[in-house]
Design goal:
Radius of gyration: 21 Å
Structural class: alpha/beta
Number of helices: 13
Order of helices and strands: HEHHEHEHEHEHEHEEHHHEEHEEEH
Number of strands: 13
């Protein structure tokens, strides 16, 4: 059998190393995973109650339209119900966008490095990815605007950017949108938006939807809501964009359990607020420690920090791993002498810094 030629050499997404695998490989009992930007505080207790209540419905298909979740989210965000589409994580919605809009020979513009699934899914459809290098870890929006041609169909802005954690401000995004032709879809990936509730400079993207018909926002329940295992995310856009993307959505692409979990999560904003405060405290602690160790790092606007160690990322990753700390090596993220570390609990953060100091002493700078 012969596969599509354009997918043969596509790289497969490499997630953070699983805890179970590390325990088996190294014989360690206590592992701290700070690699995948998961919420170290879990999820709201109300989520588990909602999921358990759904167990008696296991034999029933889910609501393909996610009607109850749609209603809850529309009320929470003050957005019309016909402006949502749901998927198995926001990356599922990302896939649908590419499937709906991109054809062979089309172009799509994105930063580099950024979330790799933009490029991955675009190239599956045969589109050409135009990658614009980051400027000191930030999106170079003027350069991205200049990279647009008559073949451009989609522009991607990951905000905060993964893996650098840097942020495009509201003013920067408005100026950028004013330069983009109205027939080009601009996708703003806001997986970490809830961590910026107190950031006055963060884009008021929901307001911008009223002004720009060619904008789509991606969000997820995998991060601050702690529902990564349930795989539930969503897109927000004007109804005509949602209708187009919905044409390629699989009939039952989210589960009953995920929908119930998401509804319960929305209704416990006290949990979200608590996680925001604890994340801010964690960023402050880690930043202080990096300063003490004279390490450079990008300003963090999510629940992770990319720190520059001037040492081979793979060697750092392996030595931290031997101490039971899983991080994300920058060699996979476009920064071969850096690591990306999730902000954990205070206990986890202290353990990471202790292990990092040993690592810096053990591995020489390049």
């Amino acid at each position: 059998m012969k596969a599509k030629q354009r997918i043969v050499d596509l790289p497969v997404y490499k997630p953070g190393k699983p805890i179970e695998e590390v325990k088996k490989e190294l014989g360690l009992k206590n592992i701290i995973k700070l690699a995948s930007n998961e919420n170290p505080y879990g999820c709201s207790p109300k989520v588990n109650e909602a999921v358990i209540a759904e167990l008696e419905q296991t034999n029933m298909y889910p609501d393909g339209a996610s009607s109850k979740l749609r209603q809850a989210l529309a009320a929470h965000l003050n957005i019309e119900e016909n402006q949502f589409i749901f998927g198995a994580g926001s990356d599922d919605v990302l896939l649908m966008i590419c499937r709906a809009y991109l054809e062979a020979g089309d172009e799509t513009v994105m930063a580099t490095p950024t979330f790799p699934q933009y490029k991955h899914n675009a190239e599956i459809e045969g589109a050409v990815s135009i990658e614009v290098p980051l400027n000191n870890g930030n999106h170079d929006l003027p350069a991205m605007a200049k990279a647009i041609t008559e073949k451009t169909k989609i522009v991607w802005v990951c905000n905060p950017n993964n893996p650098t954690g840097t942020m495009v401000s509201h003013e920067e995004l408005v100026e950028f949108m004013q330069q983009i032709p109205t027939h080009i879809l601009v996708v703003i990936d806001e997986a970490y938006v809830e961590y910026n509730y107190n950031n006055k400079q963060f884009p008021r993207s929901l307001e911008l939807l009223q002004q720009y018909d060619n904008m789509m926002i991606l969000r997820t329940f995998s991060k601050i809501y702690g529902l990564a295992a349930h795989r539930i995310g969503y897109g927000i856009a004007n109804s005509h964009v949602i209708q187009t993307v919905n044409q390629v959505r699989e009939p039952f692409n989210t589960t009953r359990f995920a929908q119930a979990a998401a509804i319960a999560a929305i209704r416990d904003q006290a949990f979200v607020t608590t996680c925001c405060h604890k994340n801010e405290e964690g960023i402050h602690y880690l930043s202080q420690q990096f300063n003490r160790l004279k390490l450079q790092y990008f300003p963090a606007h999510g629940n992770f920090i990319m720190v520059h160690l001037d040492r081979p990322a793979e060697a750092v990753f392996e030595y931290l791993l031997s101490q039971g700390i899983i991080v994300r090596g920058g060699n996979y993220l476009g920064y071969p002498t850096s690591i990306r570390v999730t902000v954990g609990t205070q206990e986890q953060n202290v353990a990471f810094i202790t292990a990092l100091e040993k690592t810096l002493q053990h591995i020489s700078p390049v």
